[in-house]
Amino acid sequence: MSNVEFGWARDNFQQVLMLTITRVHNLMILKRFSKVKLVKFFLV
Predict the structure, then answer these.
(1) Is there a domain that residue 30 lies in?
(2) Residue 14 maps to a domain
(3) How far apart are CA 1 and CA 33, in angstroms?
(4) 40 is a domain residue
(5) Continuous H helices in the chain
(6) Distance between CA atoms of 28 and 16, rounded to whole angstroms?
(7) Quick check: 41 pLDDT over 90?
(8) 12 in a structural domain
């Protein structure tokens, strides 16, 4: 495995990792947001 291949694989891996983290983070935010909306709805 050459340095170029290794660099490309590492960059690719970081990109996939960032996408996954972003997706999970967004899902967590959505869940929390919907919970807050539900709580407000029931409190009002």
Answers:
(1) yes
(2) no
(3) 46
(4) yes
(5) 3-43
(6) 18
(7) no
(8) no
What's the CA gap between 44 and 6, in Å, rounded?
57
Quick: pLDDT tens for 10-40.
999 999 999 999 999 999 988 888 888 877 8
| Cα(7)–Cα(3) distance, integer angstroms | 6
25 exposure class (CB count in 10 Å sphere: 0-12, 13-18, 19+)? exposed
The pLDDT value given to residue 44? 64
- Overall number of domains in the chain: 1
- Per-residue tokens: 26: 């967004």
d(CA 12, CA 18): 10
DSSP state of 35: H
pLDDT at 3 over 70: yes
- Domain holding 30, by residue range, is 19-44
